[in-house]
Amino acid sequence: MTEPAGREPAEASADDSVINTSTGRAHGHDDCPKCGSTEVSRKGETLSLICGFCRYEWVGTRLEDAHGLGDGIGDLAGRTFMSGAADITSAETLITLKCQGCGSEVVVDTGRTLEARCHWCRSILSINDKIPNGAVPDGIVPFAISKEDAIARIGQFAGKRKFFALKRFRAEFKPDNVLAVYLPYMTVDGNVTARFHGKGEVQTRRYTVQHGKTSTTYYDADVYDVVREFDLHIDDLIIESSATRSNIDNRANTNNIINSLLPYDVKNMVAFDSNYLGDATAEKRDLNIDDVTRKAHVQFLTMAREGIRDDLMQYDRGVRWTHEDMDVHGSRWATVFLPVWLYSYAEKSDTGQVMVHYIAVNGRNGNVMGSVPINKARLWGVTFLATVLTAAVAWPLGAAIMVAG
Amino acid sequence: MDAVILGSSSSSGDIGFFGLVLLAVPFVVGWWTYRSLYRRYRNQDQRYRYEYTTAAVRSRLQRWDTFDRKNNRQRNRDIHGRNDDDSHERADHATVREAQAPRVAQEERLAQEAREAEPAREAQEPRAADTPREPGA
């Protein structure tokens, strides 16, 4: 991570705490800058966009370069956020766009997607700027893994977990049903000072004492008051900004699977352009910075604790921290769409409860993780068999040894 | 972790202990089989390892290590209540303060020139005492 000092955030708006990423463009046609066609798509797995009509190519703006994200973390003071992370002020998801091609009105459900094709003239209409319902992020990290690749990875993952999988899951499993989804996240940089206070012990002696038939090992130690204070500059911590996705409860859902796909290479995020979405659906952000601040602070604290571990090696009996203090001098927030290939399967239990299992692929590096519903009868059967077989060997041996003893 | 090492100096005790271990082994194997297979299929322990994967630069580290006392004849290998090895385990007292206003604003306030002090009371012109009023006036 680079840390040049004194860099001013680029394009600071009238309110210094907001970095303006608005495009200023009207919703509707997001067309080729050369010929005006709306048939724009991504060029393969690159960051380039290409016009399907005149083949003109251009590249989206990297937010990291345009706004100096990742720079000047040590200078952050107060809460700074990009305009895409502004508070949600509208619950309205349906937006009506007037087609510039034919004048008809087309409704876009921004809760799922940010593009729609005009059903009369076939031109593509897009949401081209921030809207107050949180549907448009500052940046997007486009897919780098193709659908075929994702299907192969999901098939391989599930293929290795067939034997104990639920019979219905095995019968109904079709990795071709995988969907491309952009999920909403926030990235946060933090300029913090952490101060930890506790007790640490250094072993000075180890000895064993005999008590009749048994012996006990004892340890002597020197106890120290330990205090550590340091600055920590955190770069691009990723946090879920969808309430549903951030609710990780293993008893009720498998959201931890999606969570485990993190991190992504958010340094490569480009300014949001709906042409990057392609056929993928997009989930709308429904959490504000205030809703996730507490979680971010806890994670900052955990990172600070992790960051000081290497400095405690002399305390070979460990340290008991009793006080943790953290000052968050400044933070910088941005919203981003991250790509996920998602296969889901709804398991209905005998009680009628539904558990949705995900097998998901990180759309950038191809890491795959999943939850496969289990045939518990088979699992218990194999567990019982393993127990019985082990007992068949261990118990006679144990009995013989005890009798002999 | 409790590291008390219990053993027996007699060979018959050792054999009895080993026999008991063998009796318990099948249950341990059964528990391990169920747990590892369940984990392999459901992956409930998987999560974002942000504390290891997020870039963070530490600076201006200050240390205070002050000898407190001796703590002898402990039966545990680790300090009681050790939590430095699990960064997710919060200390008894954890406080996070967030600066809402930019620090620049504070600095500007502190950088203001000191207001001129009021003249000392002693330096004021002594006021003339009122003429005592006549009683009954």
Describe the structure.
The complex is a heterodimer of chains A (405) and B (137). With 405 residues, chain A is of the alpha+beta class. Helix content of chain A is 20%, strand content 35%. Chain A has 2 domains: 18-30 and 61-191 and 229-374, no CATH class; 376-405. In chain A, the strands form 4 sheets. In chain A, strands 1, 6, 11, 12, 13, 14, 15, 16, 17 and 18 form a 10-stranded mixed beta sheet that branches. The longest helix of chain A has 29 residues, at 376-404. The radius of gyration of chain A is 28 Å and the shape is flat. Chain B has helices spanning 11-42, 50-53, 103-110, and strands at residues 55-74, 93-98. Chains A and B meet through β12, β13, α5, α6 and β16 of A and α1, α2, β1 and β2 of B.
User: What is the rounded distance between the termini of chain A?
Assistant: 65 Å
Shape of chain B: flat
Average the pLDDT over all residues of chain A and give the rounded result: 86
Number of strands of chain B: 2
Unreliable stretches of chain A (pLDDT < 50, length at least 5) are: 1-14
Oligomer: heterodimer
Strand content of chain A: 35-45%
How many strands, what sense, and barrel or not for the largest sheet of chain A?
A: 10 strands, mixed
**Main beta-sheet annotation of chain B:** none
Please bin the fraction of helical residues of chain B: 25-40%
For the largest interface, the chains and their residue counts are: A-B, 112 and 89 residues
What is the H/E order of chain B? HHEEH
Rg result of chain B: 36 Å
Ends distance of chain B: 94 Å
Number of helices of chain A: 7
Structural class of chain B: alpha+beta
The tally of strands of chain A reads: 18
